[in-house]
Specification:
The protein is an alpha+beta fold. It has helices spanning 16-28, 59-67, 73-81, and strands spanning 7-15, 33-36, 47-55. Helix content is 36%, strand content 25%.
């Protein structure tokens, strides 16, 4: 059985939906993640401090994914602005 020291919190959020989204993104990228502080039977209605935790060994990789900048919509529009769509 794993001890609590084997897990590290990568983010604390105020709603269960956000926690599930982060945990899902990490899981999809090969980093096992779990939500702590929310009753799994009432995840949608929970509001408060909810932690997303990963194995201590996966902490750095998880933080890189969480902090990775997303593509900015304005930048994507700028890249295509001067292009001729009929070309």
């Amino acid at each position: 059985m794993k001890r609590e020291d084997d897990f590290k919190t990568v983010i604390t959020v105020n709603d269960a939906i956000s926690a599930q989204m982060v945990a899902g993104m990490l899981n999809e990228n090969g980093i096992p993640a779990a939500v702590f502080g929310a009753d799994s039977t009432a995840l949608v209605n929970v509001v408060g401090n909810i932690d997303v935790k990963v194995n201590a060994a996966d902490y750095d990789a998880a933080m890189e994914l969480i902090n990775a900048p997303g593509e900015d919509v304005d930048e994507a529009e700028e890249e295509t602005e001067g292009e001729d769509p009929d070309a």
